[in-house]
């Protein structure tokens, strides 16, 4: 499953990352898989939100069949 990345994650890792997700997964598993591949960005990922089909989620069980898009939204910074 391709996962879209934004902001600093997109700049450092790329605009998408391919993950091997099980048929039913938790949003935390998405972040954990990215942290395994890119441990240097664990701090940013720990503060990031997961969006499934353009809605933020912290659902315990997400069915891959119902997913069109997954995106990781890092915290917004600026001043």
UniProtKB/TrEMBL annotation:
One of its GO terms (biological process) is Mo-molybdopterin cofactor biosynthetic process. Keywords: Nucleotide-binding. InterPro entries: Beta-grasp_dom_sf, MOCS2A, Mopterin_synth/thiamin_S_b, ThiS/MoaD-like. Gene3D superfamilies: 3.10.20.30. One of its GO terms (cellular component) is molybdopterin adenylyltransferase complex. CDD domains: Ubl_MoaD. It holds the Pfam family ThiS. It comes from the Bacteria. Belongs to the MoaD family. This is Molybdopterin synthase sulfur carrier subunit. It comes from Companilactobacillus mishanensis. The lineage of its organism: Bacteria, Bacillati, Bacillota, Bacilli, Lactobacillales.
